[in-house]
Design goal:
Oligomer: single chain
Strand content: 5-15%
Structural class: alpha/beta
Helix content: 25-40%
Mean pLDDT: 91
Largest sheet: 8 strands, mixed
Number of helices: 12
Radius of gyration: 19 Å
Shape: globular
Distance between the termini: 37 Å
Amino acid sequence: MQLFHNRRFSTTGCTVWVLAVALGLYVARVKAQPVQPVEPVQHEFIIKDFKTESGVILPVARITYGTYGKLNAAGDNAILLPSHYMAKFTGYGWLIGPGKALDPDKLFLISTELFGNGRSSSPSNTPAPLNGSRFPLMSVRDNVRSVHRLIKDELKINHLRAVIGFSMGAQQAFQWAVSYPDFMDRIVATAGTAKTHGHGIVRLEGQIAAITADETFKGGDYTSPPVKGLEAFAVVWTGWLYSQEWWRLERWKDNAPAGTTLAQVVEQRRKRFIPDADTNDLILQMRTWQNHNVADTPPFNGDLEAALRSIKVPVLYMPSETDLYFPLTDARYEVGFIANGVLLPIPSIWGHTAGAASNPADAKFLNENIAAFLNGKLPSR
């Protein structure tokens, strides 16, 4: 079942610097690590006549992805890192490099970009008649199915050591475990669930409503960015990003110049949240997020518990204790049906961003426990 899939919304739809400054989501500031990040190699995979779950056929579906390291002779050192909301394939730098959980000198890492991020096929870069508001709804399964083809057909890899994902990347990791239960040895999901539950659907609907209330949005056929709607969206998103305690303790001061006020922080987020992102792209990925449910995978017919029970591989499930996007209670519910699931909450006040190592303590916790899990050890608090 796909929720809120009406004709108008179903067809609508950062750089690392942007997300590090505006979100604090994707770049870990770990002083003990090398200053220079490990650089990936960029690639593009093309699928012709890709049929989406919505029934619309994309004549050309493009997937932008990056690779780190080399595939070994046995072909058994590959790990997939599916991207998160509006992110590029560089969004897992907090996990990659010497001394971190994923060493590209030993592993072959594949980091893919979701449909709708502005580089993979998106409302903003697809020609008529599927441009802009006419671009089809893309499901998480559409993304997973296309990347499965990339890995099998282009990279000639038949098995993955792991799938590791943050946020929408975690959604994809769970979908991999349900759609292709024997294709990987294990999965890691940080700050993301196997289903977008009701509260998350409503939150995302509020953020979409903030954009679409701007009259210049014009149902997705805007001729210039709907600035007022985008600013309202940014403020709503910011309010959900961190925990209430994070705000009470004024942890926004950690990475702000001395003397910065809360009003200045809010204004910065309002004006520079995800600059240069196309509005239809933003909405498309929110719809992808909103409609995700592994229970809609055949043959489960909406039965979430059955879908979760079908997962064969070990799962390291790492919700943030203070995530307002994917609450800890949702993770506790879901892990109860995963036979080899280990629930390891991130002890953090950094809200959703904890799942992408937005601060040194969370970076250490994530890297140590993910490394242990990949080596077959049971992580513990």
